[in-house]
Task: inverse folding
């Protein structure tokens, strides 16, 4: 897979491919990079190629323009984060509010400004209800130009100066999983990289499994850069994940990334070969997400039936039970909790 090879060169320090592509191949590679949300990173890799192996000038200019757009958006997000911290000083207190997902993961990239990110994600975590109430009180004192959307119980959305910030009240999707995460945070006293990886695994799994969304290349790079760091405790991560709804998904994701990027970070993985071989079909379906709910449900049913043994190995339960039972209980909980925030 040529895109994975170029991403390895741009982000993982791997050598650049020596293949000479035709114009049609470059066009297909560029469209794939846009779908996989790594267009600016592909430009970084292409910029390092010898002149004779680069794409034609017109496409190179399009890549450069796209990379500049991504960079300018990242700068706007940084400025919005700084301004929000000035308006609401609590957001600068890392013992109460920490940055997660895109903006936080961008720091792991060689060029942080080229990691595509749509919004800012903050997580309110504390060892007591006091911080929660203090955060809600601070939100109520924000100026009227900060538009708040509190319809989703998972997070409050702040829209200001053309940017969006999601203030997450909890990260995982089941109460038992959130209790496990909070217990781990109390033991550590900080929101460390293992906690961030646990959330990233659960978030990636949930969107791919329940929302019929393919895992993009950007998410795979996030995972490798976060969990592949020297000193990262992968054994602790896999142990935590195995006690949550994510099951063995984190380990399967790690083994798939090793195979895709030709790395050997997770050499101790015990994931079944059958799961790794089917991972792309299970989680990286290149078809666009269906717009009609009925079609999405039909696709999920077919996929759950086709890969039933693999899903049961990963999660310890059938996907029909996991999908419908979980979604009903989560929807009910969010409706109840949404009335409290």
Result:
């Amino acid at each position: 897979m040529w895109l994975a090879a170029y991403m390895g060169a741009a982000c993982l320090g791997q050598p650049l491919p020596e293949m000479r592509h035709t114009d049609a191949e470059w066009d297909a590679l560029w469209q794939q990079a846009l779908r996989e949300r790594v267009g600016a990173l592909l430009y970084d890799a292409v910029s390092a190629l010898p002149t004779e192996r680069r794409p034609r000038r017109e496409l190179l200019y399009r890549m450069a323009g796209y990379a500049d757009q991504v960079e300018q958006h990242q700068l706007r997000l940084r400025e919005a984060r700084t301004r929000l911290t000035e308006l609401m000083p609590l957001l600068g207190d890392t013992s109460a509010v920490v940055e997660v997902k895109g903006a936080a993961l961008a720091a792991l990239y060689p060029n942080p400004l080229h990691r595509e990110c749509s919004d800012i994600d903050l997580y309110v975590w504390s060892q007591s209800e006091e911080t929660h109430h203090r955060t809600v009180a601070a939100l109520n004192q924000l100026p009227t130009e900060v538009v708040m959307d509190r319809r989703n119980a998972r997070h409050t959305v702040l829209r200001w100066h053309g940017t969006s910030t999601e203030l997450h009240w909890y990260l995982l999707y089941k109460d038992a999983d959130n209790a496990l995460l909070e217990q781990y945070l109390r033991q550590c006293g900080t929101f460390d990289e293992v906690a961030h990886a646990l959330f990233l695994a659960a978030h990636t799994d949930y969107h791919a499994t329940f929302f019929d969304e393919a895992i993009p290349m950007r998410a795979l790079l996030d995972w490798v850069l976060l969990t592949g760091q020297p000193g990262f405790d992968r054994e602790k991560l896999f142990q935590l994940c195995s006690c949550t709804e994510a099951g063995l998904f984190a380990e399967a994701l790690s083994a798939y990334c090793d195979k895709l990027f030709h790395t050997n970070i997770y050499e101790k993985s015990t994931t079944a070969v059958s799961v790794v071989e089917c991972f792309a079909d299970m989680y990286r379906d290149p078809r666009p997400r269906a717009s009609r709910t009925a079609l999405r449900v039909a696709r999920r049913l077919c996929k759950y039936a086709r890969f039933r043994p693999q899903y049961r190995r990963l999660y310890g339960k059938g996907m029909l039970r996991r999908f419908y039972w979980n979604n009903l209980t989560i929807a009910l909980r969010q409706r109840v909790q949404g009335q409290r925030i």
Q: What stands out?
A: The chain has 15 helices and five strands. Residues 174-328 form one domain. The beta strands are 97-100, 120-124, 147-149, 155-160, 163-168.
